[in-house]
Specification:
By secondary structure, the chain is mainly alpha-helical. Helix content is 69%, strand content 0%. The relative contact order is 0.12.
C-alpha cells in the first residue's frame, strides 16, 4: 500500500472550519474543552473528532447501518493509503494520522465498536461493557494522546481511562433515549440483580428505584475511571493539561447532573448549562498542577492491545498500514495475553528501579 510523503503544509483552513463546525454541533461539551487546547492541536483534534463523529452518525442515523459501516471502513482504508475521499473530514483526518503516526488498528477498533451498535449487542457484565467503551471512546482518548506526543504506556492508559469514563457517563445519561431506540447498554447482570427483566423493561422503559441504583452504580464506575485518569492528565505536556482536565471535569459534571435528578435518565436528559461549563473551563485553566511522572499501572484488560500498539508507534515513523495491522487486530490468545502482561510488569519494574536509582543518587 503506497504511503504519502510527509508534508509540512498546513491543513486547508476551509477543511478545518468545516470540521470545527461539526464538532461544535455534534458535541458541545467536547467543543468547549477544545477551546483551551494549544493552538497547534486544535486543527488535528477537530479532524480526528470530526471523522469519529461522521462515522458514528452514518452508522447510527442511516437506514442501513451495515452498509454505512462498510462505506466508513472503505473511507478509512483510503485515508491510510494517502488517498482520502474528496471530503473536508477525510482530508483533515488523513493529515492528522500522518503527522501523529496514529496506528490504523485504533480507528479500526472504533469502527468495530460501531459494528456492535449495528448488531444491537448487549453486555452481560461490566467487563463486556468496558470492551465496548474502549472501542468507541477509549480509542478517541488514545488518538488524542498521540496528537500530544504521548507514547508511554501509563499515560496512554490514563487517556484510555478518560475516554471509557466519558462513555460510561454518556450511557448513564442516555438510558431512556437508548431504550426508546431499542438499545440497552447497562450490564444485564446488574439489572437482574435488581430484579429487572431486561427484555420486559425494554418493551416498556420506565424509571424505577431499582433502575436508579443501576445508573448510580455505573456512574460510580465512571468516577473511578476519572480518578484513574488524573495521573495521566498530570503527565501530559503543560499546555495540553487544561484542555484534557476540562474534558474530564465537564463530563463528570454530566454525571452529577444525572445524580441531581435522582438518577432518572428516563424522563429527562441531563444537560450542563453553559454558565456551569464556563466556570469549569475557568477552573481548568487556572489549576496549574506541576507535571508528574506517569504512574506505574496496568491498563484495563480490554485496552491492553491498543495501548501496546500506540506505545510502539514512534513519532516520526509512518503509521502501520492496513496489511501490517490486520493480523494484530485479532484478540490475542490467553497465552499471548499472559506473555504480554509478564513483559509489561518486567518493563514497569525496570523503570521503577531506574527511577529509584535517580532519586537516591
Amino acid at each position: 500500500m503506497p504511503r504519502p510523503e510527509r508534508s509540512e503544509r498546513f491543513a486547508d483552513p476551509a477543511d478545518v472550519a468545516h470540521c470545527r463546525h461539526l464538532l461544535r454541533d455534534g458535541s458541545r461539551t467536547f467543543f468547549a474543552a477544545s477551546l483551551i487546547l494549544p493552538a497547534g492541536l486544535r486543527a488535528p483534534s477537530a479532524g480526528l473528532y470530526a471523522f469519529c463523529r461522521v462515522a458514528d452518525d452514518a452508522v447510527d442515523q442511516g437506514a442501513d447501518g451495515a452498509a454505512a459501516l462498510s462505506r466508513m471502513r472503505s473511507r478509512l482504508e483510503s485515508v491510510y493509503r494517502g488517498q482520502p475521499d474528496d471530503h473536508a473530514v477525510d482530508r483533515l483526518f488523513a493529515d492528522t494520522v500522518l503527522r501523529s503516526t496514529i496506528p490504523l488498528a485504533i480507528p479500526q477498533a472504533l469502527l468495530e465498536g460501531f459494528a456492535w451498535d449495528v448488531e444491537r449487542r448487549r453486555y452481560a457484565t461490566l467487563a463486556e461493557l468496558e470492551c465496548y467503551a474502549v472501542r468507541v471512546a477509549g480509542t478517541v482518548g488514545l488518538m488524542m494522546a498521540l496528537l500530544m506526543g504521548v507514547r508511554d504506556h501509563a499515560t496512554l492508559a490514563g487517556a484510555c481511562d478518560l475516554g471509557v469514563a466519558m462513555q460510561l457517563t454518556n450511557i448513564a445519561r442516555d438510558v431512556g433515549e437508548d431504550a426508546r431506540n431499542g438499545r440497552l447498554y447497562l450490564p444485564l447482570e446488574w439489572l437482574q440483580e435488581e430484579g429487572i427483566d431486561p427484555d420486559r423493561w425494554l418493551g416498556r422503559p420506565e424509571h424505577l428505584p431499582a433502575l436508579a441504583r443501576v445508573v448510580e452504580r455505573l456512574l460510580g464506575v465512571a468516577e473511578a475511571r476519572y480518578t484513574a485518569a488524573e495521573p495521566g492528565i498530570s503527565a501530559l505536556p503543560a499546555n495540553c493539561r487544561p484542555g484534557m482536565r476540562a474534558a474530564r471535569l465537564l463530563y463528570a459534571e454530566i454525571g452529577r447532573e444525572v445524580a441531581r435528578w435522582g438518577f432518572d435518565s428516563i424522563n429527562q436528559r441531563a444537560v450542563v448549562s453553559w454558565q456551569r461549563k464556563a466556570r469549569i473551563l475557568a477552573d481548568a485553566m487556572v489549576r496549574r498542577a506541576p507535571r508528574a511522572p506517569p504512574p506505574i499501572r496496568v491498563p484495563l484488560p480490554a485496552a491492553a492491545f491498543l495501548i501496546d500498539c500506540a506505545a510502539e508507534c514512534d513519532a516520526g515513523r509512518p503509521a502501520p498500514t492496513l496489511e501490517s495491522t490486520r493480523e494484530r487486530l485479532r484478540w490475542p490468545r490467553i497465552e499471548d495475553r499472559i506473555t504480554w502482561l509478564i513483559d509489561l510488569f518486567e518493563r514497569l519494574e525496570r523503570r521503577e528501579r531506574a527511577r529509584v536509582g535517580v532519586v537516591n543518587s
